[in-house]
Design a protein that fits this description.
Number of helices: 3
Order of helices and strands: HHEEHEEEE
Helix content: 25-40%
Structural class: alpha+beta
Distance between the termini: 39 Å
Strand content: over 45%
C-alpha cells in the first residue's frame, strides 16, 4: 500500500470506529469544514444527521472492505464496501437492521492529514427493521 492509500484506509477505519463508538467529536474531525455528507453540509450538520440514525440505536458494527483508493496529488477518491449491522435499543430492543452498500468518499490532504470533503453511502441491500435507526 502506498503511504497515501494506507493513510486513507486508516482514516476510513477511524470513521467506522467513531460511528460504532458514537464518538461524535472524532466523526466531525474526519471532515473538512466545507464537507458534504449524508445529505448535510459541514461537520456539525453531518454529525447531527448521523446522530438522528445512530444516537438511539443499540450497538452497531461497520465492516469495511474492497478499498479502492485513487490519489491525485492533494486530493483523492475512495470507494469502499460497507456491511453494517445495527441492534435495536429501547423500544426497538430485540430488532436488528443490516445494510450492505458502498461508500464513496472524496478527500483533501490537510495539515492534519487526509480529511473527507464528500461522503455518500449507497445502500444496495437491506435486511431487518429500519426502526432500529433512531435519534438519542
Amino acid at each position: 500500500m502506498s503511504g497515501d492509500r494506507e493513510a486513507i484506509v486508516h482514516a476510513l477505519c477511524g470513521v467506522a470506529t467513531a460511528l460504532d463508538t458514537r464518538d461524535w467529536a472524532a466523526l466531525g474531525a474526519a471532515f473538512t469544514p466545507d464537507a458534504r455528507g449524508y445529505g448535510a453540509n459541514g461537520p456539525d450538520a453531518i454529525v447531527a444527521r448521523v446522530r438522528r440514525h445512530l444516537g438511539g440505536c443499540g450497538p452497531s458494527q461497520h465492516l469495511l472492505g474492497n478499498h479502492r483508493v485513487h490519489v491525485d496529488g492533494d486530493t483523492a477518491r475512495s470507494f469502499t464496501y460497507g456491511r453494517v449491522m445495527h441492534a435495536g435499543a429501547g423500544p426497538a430492543e430485540g430488532l436488528t437492521y443490516e445494510c450492505f452498500g458502498e461508500y464513496e468518499d472524496r478527500w483533501a490532504r490537510t495539515g492534519d492529514g487526509w480529511r473527507i470533503t464528500y461522503r455518500r453511502f449507497r445502500v444496495t441491500f437491506e435486511l431487518g427493521d429500519r426502526s432500529v435507526l433512531r435519534p438519542d
